[in-house]
Amino acid sequence: MSNPPSQSLLTELKDRLGLKGFTADPSDLAPWLQDWRGRYQGAAAAMLSPATTQQVSDIVRLCAAEGVPLVPQGGNTSMAGGATPSEAGDALLLSTRRMNRLRSISAEANVAVAEAGVILADLHEAAAAVGRRFPLSLGAKGSATIGGLVSTNAGGTQVLRFGTMRALVEGIEAVLPDGSIFDSLAPLKKDNRGYDLRQLLIGAEGTLGIVTAASLKLVPAVGSRSVAWCGLESPDKALALLRLLDNAVGDAVESFELVPRQALDLVLRHVAGTRAPLGGSHGWHVLIEAVAPMVAPSPEKELGRALGAALEIGVIEDAIIAQNEAQAEALWRIRDSISEAEKKDGPAAKHDVSVEVSAMPAFMIEATAAVEQRFPGTRVIAFGHLGDGNVHFNVRAPEGADQAWAVGEGSAVTAFVHDLVTAAGGSISAEHGIGQMRLAELARLGDPTRLAAMRAIKKALDPKGIMNPGKLVPPIARAQASL
Ligand code: FAD
Ligand code: 2HG
Ligand code: ZN
């Protein structure tokens, strides 16, 4: 059972953290108490902004002694309400944004050691400056932090080639729920000393401790890139195109993002300065990026040839290849603005689902028809990482509905979509995590064996339940607990 912070704890924290590290001013706290989509509004007695790992450890030790909950927060771009405290106001918000030091970066070792609060776009810049890159990117790169990316096992638009954060984190430093510091930053390629606590912390959404720094894998910088936009008839054809590219262009293909016409229309309507890449109207589009390192030839020729062949055999309807960086960036801007455009357009029930890659096209078509028939007036906009078998199967509210729809009828839509995904053997959280948004659904649909193991791990490492309560780990239902 957690407790609200006592006045003496708040005073002690204020003294230790100083002016920059402690605020209880409601106007400082306000922007950080609502999630990015504006679905959750939380409360907190104070926001703590430590500058060092030792300060994080001190905070956790003091809070653990009083059983006071802590909600870790980085850039607050969670798509699952993961960084928003509950309305109860008994928790303290722990922001890592001041811990934004790049401790080291080595082109020789291909490793960057970044503190939790380093912003993804800043890491990209630092890696480029030493002739390397960190191969994970997403629309929120200007705000999302390393701690948040690690803790959500973030995906993004290069998973096809480089995998999710799990594949890119080579070491972790974290403060565990009793305040002890777990130092496993050494980027060892091989280490069989038992359970891998680092992997356990990746994707733990702050429920097992606070990530304070990570050693991250770098890869060679981009020598040349080729970015294309294709119009096509269906997700099925899109997947056929990807398979064709596998053979013709191979590993150079890093991104393969599916954009339905409705998503493009939303971006054109709501995001200033965007324009349709192709003439004519296509039901679906894909954005493709192929990359070659410095000494290798540009992938443009292979990509152009492959798209020409795809056009000839009717796999695609039309295509353009960006002729310069400005055009490439304009194509990416469309893709990366879909969430923002969707937010401006009104309420939606948002889903982040995966099924087997080869099953995704049929799933998308069948699930869209089923949802739109069962919930008249709704419109499905499913977009994203088709090559990973992961789309954001978002369902727009009927015309005129207000924000309350998302938590009202939208919940019935969500249950319907998740039932379809589960029946297809898929996941209800491919990359955004569970947070508070999917907690009840994980409790309803999660495999009992997996849930029991998660609860056992949580109880062992965080017996007082102070780390990000109400997120990720569903509590045992009362009826079940009393058996
Ligand atoms: P926050 O939102 O602050 O926190 C996320 C979770 O991690 C919370 O549970 C929080 O408690 C926990 N946490 C944060 N820092 C720490 C820490 N140091 N230690 C322990 N726990 C911590 N996600 C994808 O996977 N792929 C995408 O393509 C993608 N695109 C996005 C596009 C937009 C426009 C937006 C708004 C979001 C997108 N996201 C995407 C979701 C989001 O950006 C990621 O989940 C990101 O990893 C969150 O980083 P953050 O620093 O904002 O974390
Ligand atoms: C993306 O792929 C993000 O753009 C956000 O994961 C998805 O807004 C969404 O649903
Ligand atoms: Zn995504």
From TrEMBL:
One term of GO molecular function: FAD binding
The keyword Oxidoreductase is annotated on this UniProt entry: no
Residue ranges occupied by any FAD-binding PCMH-type domain in the UniProt entry: 40-221
Any one Gene Ontology BP term: respiratory electron transport chain
Keywords for the protein's UniProt record, in alphabetical order: FAD, Flavoprotein
Source taxon at top rank: Bacteria
Alphabetized InterPro entries for the sequence: FAD-bd_oxidored_4_C, FAD-bd_PCMH, FAD-bd_PCMH-like_sf, FAD-bd_PCMH_sub1, FAD-bd_PCMH_sub2, FAD-linked_Oxase-like_C, FAD-oxidored/transferase_4, Oxid_FAD_bind_N
Cofactor: FAD
Family per record: Belongs to the FAD-binding oxidoreductase/transferase type 4 family.
Protein's name according to its UniProt entry: Hydroxyacid dehydrogenase
Organism listed in the record: Allosphingosinicella humi
Lineage: Bacteria, Pseudomonadati, Pseudomonadota, Alphaproteobacteria, Sphingomonadales
